[in-house]
Fold Cob(II)yrinic acid a,c-diamide reductase.
Amino acid sequence: MSGTSPPRFDEAFAAQFAELLAWRRDVRRFRREALPEGLIEALLAQAELSPSVGHSQPWRWVRVTDAAQREAVQASFARCNADALGDYEGERARLYASLKLEGLREAPEQIAVFCDHGTAQGHGLGRKTMPEMLDYSVVAAITQFWLAARVAGVGVGWVSIVEPEVVRTALGVPAEWKLIAWLCVGWPEADSEVPELVRAGWERGR
Amino acid sequence: MSGTSPPRFDEAFAAQFAELLAWRRDVRRFRREALPEGLIEALLAQAELSPSVGHSQPWRWVRVTDAAQREAVQASFARCNADALGDYEGERARLYASLKLEGLREAPEQIAVFCDHGTAQGHGLGRKTMPEMLDYSVVAAITQFWLAARVAGVGVGWVSIVEPEVVRTALGVPAEWKLIAWLCVGWPEADSEVPELVRAGWERGR
């Protein structure tokens, strides 16, 4: 894909890249059909070109297909979402209840993304005064995954309304893996360049 | 830039996008000449198309031009780097001492990036069980800034070997702003698709 001399990106590419950023979006409405074989692997390979502190590459991707594991996460979302609703009052509570915040039941692919706090790779370089750099490295990789997916026409939604410990336990991953994200992935039902929360008016009256 | 119907990205774009990811790199060797007027603002506008939890957009960018402020950060790096060197022994200490880990003295643009923990935007949505999502939103924006910069041929280096509190105090930012990154930005002296730490053999003998 890449040669030995650095690429020069022309104006046409830059304009398309700007469109990619504008249309990336957090997707919560998915078609249920499976993605083509090998596509997720290709997208993850692009994500792993991401920067990481000390070249530690601490990302751990777990593709979750087991029905019981998925249900445990759906139940965690339902609990957390009901709890969050209780924090709002009046019109804002009504609005919150109307939001669709995840595609946990529809998205054909579900990926739990962890940061391996036990990794020796990188020999600690660059994270002595800012140990959170290890987690940030995983966030950067997720961001690249998101953009790479959108290039392929695939939608991604990041679900954070879950209990990290419940997810970790349900998947049986090592204790030193910290949950960074739960990703719903699939073909989007519809595209938009306006964020769903903006369309719903979540920022009104702040 | 973007129309009302979603863009379709063709194979030529996808191939160039893959090259962008491969050649992004953390840059530590910069030419000292200034960047064209308005370029940083354009790149930050692209970065701000990034996803953020609850549409909170908590990123705060501080372009640092003051010589005394820059020197305070260089001094912080020098302290932290000497301290980190003390953690390594023998051949690895020799290797660490030989690494060029930042371009603090050469990069014409220096940007401190903070997460505003005091923001009311987003009304707390999506970060009750994972409050760290606010910081992650800033990391995603930095990742997009990095890629947008590379599209324009501009290099970015993320410096984490500093004391966050020293940086915050030197810049006089509000107490609720958390330092996420110190970015060195400028034209790179040379491009490579191989990370500097890999070229230096930092992972050997792990």
About this structure: Residues 37 and 163 of chain A are 31 Å apart (CA to CA). Chain A has seven helices and four strands. Chain A has a mean pLDDT of 95.
